[in-house]
Structure formats: structure tokens, C-alpha cells
UniProtKB/TrEMBL annotation:
Name recorded for this polypeptide: Exodeoxyribonuclease 7 large subunit
Record text on subunit structure and interactions: Heterooligomer composed of large and small subunits.
Single annotated GO MF: nucleic acid binding
Group of enzyme by EC: hydrolase
Primary role: Bidirectionally degrades single-stranded DNA into large acid-insoluble oligonucleotides, which are then degraded further into small acid-soluble oligonucleotides.
Originating species: Blastococcus aggregatus
GO BP field: DNA catabolic process
UniProt EC number: 3.1.11.6
Subcellular location(s) per record: Cytoplasm
The UniProt record lists the keyword Secreted: no
Length: 407
């Protein structure tokens, strides 16, 4: 046994490589599923080299097998094929490389492929990626449409020609890539990320013509489905014919039956929109005309009323009313003034009757002392005191002389 490694006693590279090979060798034979990404037959060599790619992750591993295994009758091994491989993991010490040494290769049948796609569909549906509430509505007339399709393909022509014929102002942001084969899903994902990052792109169309179930497998790729679900831009899928259904059709915001149908869905038809606008304009014109005519008839009916046909009639009637009101007001004022005069005369008479001057007129006199105090009793004044006597005709100054008083 090899002693544990340490800074003082490190292992040489050969020891590490040998131990790695031993650990990998303990795994034994395993069954591996993948997609043939690269296949190489070198002349008449007995060994066939191929690269097996993971269907979901961006990961691959080299595989070697005997020519008899790769050319087994009934097995049509080609790039893009889904296969099951029974192999033993192998670590080549001299180069430090890992590979699988296959002893049996089986093609994955159509029924098994469909079953696996169904399992993936159920898994993604359980996560809510296919929920209707996630679907977004398409813009009415997008200025820029992103298109992901094969270069110079029939699907590309159908989308571009149909859309431009329906709405000539539409512009396209193209991403041409492989839509079939081992790299198709990764290429489409790259196009989605590129177009989704472009703020001018308002809707993305993923288009591909018809094909077999194997040809359309990239559009049931789990990674591609998740990439579409993560897009902020609405996505329209038009993959295959109307009867073909892939997983991207479930997650897309709109599923079109064909690329031509996708063009019909993303842009309106200019002639139809013109007819719609003309119809709305005619309807608005009719409503406005009808409204104006109604107002004209109402105005004519108002003008024919007596009050507006002969406005002076109102003035004549009102003049009589004003004259009557003036007469009534004058009579009321005169009556009130006469009543006030009578009241004033009565008040004057009462004041005159109560006035001290009237008493003086009757021969009475008012006697006051020098300080103005009234004299009411002769005993209040002293002999020789000067007094003032007020009579009706004026005032007299007198002096008290008690010597002349008679007993």
C-alpha cells in the first residue's frame, strides 16, 4: 500500500493517475443515455470514436467501441441519434483522459422517446411553467420582430414574406442557427438570450418546418423550455406542422400551427386595418352629422317660440306691471307719510301740553335761588335774599323783604 501523501512525501503524477484509474475502474459497467454529437470511423480501423452529449446539460464524454458494436445489424448509428450505451468507464493514465469503452449500443425507440418527453412535460407542468396566467399578450403592431430559424429555410421565407405583405413597416432581427441536430437546442437558447436582451425587439418567433419526431426533438429540450419561460419578451413558436406538438409549444405565449400562421398572429393585415379605420371614420362622421342636425332642429324650434319670435311682447306686458307697481308704491308711500305726520302732530301736542312754558303762560312763575335751586317753601329763603323769578314773559330779579308781610 502507498503511504499517505504529505508535503514531505508527495505522490508522483503516475501514482495519482494510477489511483484515479483504480477508483474509476471500480465503477464497473454502466448504462448511459445520450445523443451522438460526433461520430468518427477512421478508415478500416477496428475502433470507432464518438462523442456522447447529455440531452439537457452542456456536457459530453468521449466513447470508444469496436467497429462490430457500432455496425451491429439494425443499428443505424449517426450524429444526432439518441442511444443507450453499455460501457465501462476508463481512465487513460498516459494522457490523463477519461472516456467510456462501450460494449453495446442500442438506439432509443420512438415510443421510449415520447414517454421521456411526456415525463419531462409533466415535470415542467408541475412547476407551473405551462400555466395560462404566465402567458403574455402580443403587441398590436410590433416595430421589430425577432426571428429564430434556419438560414434560407422555408420557415424563414414564410415568416418574413407573409409578415411584410401584411404589414410592410415591420422590421426583423434575425438569428439564423441550426434547428436540427445535437447543437440545435443550444443554438436556439443562444438566440433567445440575444434577442431577449435587445430592447427594440417586441416579440420573438421560433420557427421551423415540419419533420420527424427525431428531427423535432431539440424543441422538447428541457433547457430550451426553461429558457423560453425566462424570457421577458413574448415568444411565439411555429415548429413543424399543425399536428406536431413539442414542449416549447406549451410554454410559449402563443403557439402557431405553422410559420405562416405565426406571421398572421404577430402583425395585423394593413388592408383590414385600413378598412377598420375607414369604417370608424364613417361611423364618427355619421354620429357627428346626426348630432349637428338634431341641434339645428332644436335651435329652429326654439327660434319659432313666441317669446323669441316677438320679444317686445314681453316688454309691453311688463310695462303695465311696472306702472301698476309704481302707482301702488306711490300710494303706499303717501299713506305712510301722512300717517307719520299725524303721529308727529299728536306728539307735538302732547309735548306742548306737558311743557313748563304752557304752565307759565297760564300765570304761574318759577322762583329760583341764586344757585339755581327751586324754592318750594317760603321758609327755605332768608330775609333780604336775592331770588330769580321766571314768568311767561321773562325773568325778574327780586329781594325778599319780610317786613312788608302781613300777619
Amino acid at each position: 500500500m502507498t503511504a499517505p501523501s504529505s508535503p514531505e512525501a508527495p505522490w508522483p503524477v503516475r501514482t495519482v493517475a494510477r489511483k484515479v484509474a483504480e477508483w474509476i475502474g471500480r465503477l464497473g459497467e454502466v448504462w448511459v443515455e445520450g445523443q451522438v454529437a460526433q461520430l468518427s470511423r477512421r478508415g478500416n480501423a477496428a475502433t470507432v470514436f464518438l462523442t456522447l452529449r447529455d440531452p439537457v446539460a452542456d456536457l459530453s464524454v468521449p466513447v470508444t467501441c469496436h467497429r462490430d458494436v457500432a455496425d451491429r445489424p439494425g443499428l443505424e448509428l449517426s450524429e444526432g441519434a439518441r442511444v443507450l450505451v453499455r460501457a465501462r468507464p476508463d481512465y487513460y493514465v498516459a494522457r490523463g483522459s477519461f472516456s467510456l469503452r462501450a460494449t453495446e449500443i442500442r438506439a432509443v425507440g420512438l415510443g421510449e422517446l415520447l414517454a421521456r418527453i411526456e415525463r419531462i412535460r409533466q415535470l415542467l407542468a408541475a412547476e407551473g411553467l405551462f400555466d395560462v396566467v404566465r402567458k403574455r399578450s402580443l403587441p398590436f403592431a410590433p416595430a421589430v420582430v425577432g426571428v429564430i430559424t434556419g438560414r434560407d429555410s422555408a420557415a424563414e421565407r414564410d415568416v418574413l414574406v407573409t409578415a411584410r405583405r401584411r404589414w410592410p413597416a415591420v422590421r426583423f432581427a434575425m438569428h439564423n442557427c441550426a434547428v436540427q441536430g445535437p447543437q440545435a437546442a443550444a443554438n436556439v437558447i443562444e438566440g433567445l438570450r440575444k434577442l431577449d436582451a435587445d430592447v427594440s425587439v417586441e416579440v420573438i418567433v421560433v420557427a421551423r418546418g415540419g419533420g420527424s419526431v427525431e428531427d423535432l426533438l431539440p424543441f422538447s429540450d428541457e433547457g430550451l423550455v426553461r429558457a423560453i419561460a425566462a424570457c421577458r419578451t413574448p415568444v411565439v413558436t411555429a415548429v413543424g406542422h399543425e399536428t406536431d406538438t413539442t414542449l416549447v409549444d406549451h410554454v410559449a405565449d402563443v403557439r402557431a400551427a405553422t410559420p405562416t400562421d405565426a406571421a398572421h398572429r404577430i402583425v395585423p393585415e394593413i388592408g383590414e386595418q385600413r378598412r377598420l379605420v375607414e369604417g370608424l371614420r364613417a361611423r364618427a362622421r355619421h354620429l357627428i352629422t346626426t348630432r349637428v342636425e338634431q341641434q339645428e332642429r332644436w335651435l329652429e324650434s326654439v327660434r319659432t317660440r313666441p317669446v323669441l319670435a316677438n320679444p317686445e311682447r314681453l316688454l309691453h306686458g311688463r310695462a303695465d306691471d311696472v306702472a301698476q307697481l309704481r302707482t301702488r308704491a306711490r300710494r303706499t308711500v303717501v299713506h305712510r307719510v301722512e300717517g307719520a305726520e299725524r303721529d308727529l302732530e299728536h306728539a307735538r301736542a302732547r309735548v306742548a301740553a306737558l311743557s313748563p312754558a304752557a304752565t307759565l303762560d297760564r300765570g304761574y312763575a318759577v322762583v329760583q335761588r341764586a344757585d339755581g335751586a327751586l324754592v318750594r317753601d317760603p321758609a327755605e329763603v332768608a330775609d333780604g335774599e336775592r331770588l330769580r323769578v321766571r314768568v311767561s314773559g321773562g325773568r325778574l330779579d327780586v329781594r325778599v323783604d319780610r317786613e312788608d308781610e302781613e300777619p
